[in-house]
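Exercise 3.2. Students should predict the tertiary structure of the chain below and write it as structure tokens, then compare their answer with the key that follows.

Predict this chain's 3D structure.
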Amino acid sequence: MKRFLVFLAAASMLCACMQDRDQILKVYNWSDYIDESVIPEFEQWYQEQTGRNIRVIYQTFDVNETMLSKVEKGHEDFDVLCPSDYIIERMLQNHLLLPIDRDFGDTPNYIDDNLSPYVRDRFNKMSGGAFNANDYAVGYMWGTTGILYNAKYVTAEEASTWDVIRNPKFADKIFIKDSPRDVFSQIIIYLRRDDVASGKVTLDELMNDSSDESLEAVEAYMKQVRPLVAGWEADFGKDQMTQERGWLSLNWSGDAVWAIEEAEEMGVDLRYSLPREGFAVWFDGWVIPKFAQNITAAKYWINFMSRPDIVIRNVDVTGYVSVSGAPEVLEAFTDEKYDPIDLSYFFGPGAESVCVNPVLYPDKADIERSTQEHDWGDRTPELVAMWSRVKGENASGMTMVVVAVFIVALAAFAVYSKFFKGRRKSRRHRR
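Answer key:
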């Protein structure tokens, strides 16, 4: 009898939860990737727009694959996710996403009104099988992969090529992202530079090349780089650069902006280069997973996140760049201290000569040398295996020293930042 009563109680609680599910929105996003003060504002805005109450349950992840596993294998009922581009492709191919309805009644459609044409075009090029990614995903943030370097030790000419990471002049001063996909993409671009220049292959075609031959070529190259590397890192490399323990770093633009700003206060001159051979851009976007239970609130969340004033606040907090091409966004990040650049590809006519940080928004001439990465599908294990061989089984002594020093420095820096500086957070982007 007691067990039966317990069962009834549990069943009642489950039913209550199910009945209230239309008043709950479950959001699963990257760590430090939003201005969290916008969450209660969304709850109020949603009630004003729809007449319905909503409570946001906001959770975070640090690795794309962790998020994917919870949805694909655990069938967890998140309503909104923010995966990276290649995971969006994988979810499309595995039928894990629902189309995003743009009908908001009397509420403006901020999604389609403000999305940059450049981002729309890039999402069209995602490999989603028979699906158009723009129907299933709405961009959130984007960026580039390039070279962060210390101008005191590295010249602009040296940093203008990916081959700088193989220069023995910088031994033990080089940090490489512990990200096989990002490293492979940039190095294969470098290795096939002559073929690209002659028109034998395009950058976009290279991003779909997962052949054994290309894997072997990148592995051989990176094994030449390995003795020069001070550390393979996911987040601590930018701190090493600001403290001049590193002079070179294969890095993401968002981390580069953070490092450049921090280094400036310390009197360290860090700069960011997009190598002449070409480079990859990346995107994160909002999606509604197959097992979502509050699709209406999910699409309103995505619409709210596309509203220009919310976009600006999220960019200010995260340090990354929104996909929004709204004029309000361009105005917010215009700064006369920068030289004019052509951002017409992103913001449209009228943005041919605007003063914006080129690390955040590359000039049109640079973006023409860019491409985007794709999901490797069944070939992903081969990529991971190659990367394991590149790094070797054991960390070098220098790497261990760097990690130990970093842990101590990070603790001191965290206290300093929290109580004295109050600067914005830096999102740790896992590719």
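Discussion points: The domain at 23-142+283-323 is CATH 3.40.190.10 (D-Maltodextrin-Binding Protein; domain 2). The chain has two domains: 23-142+283-323, 143-281+365-421.
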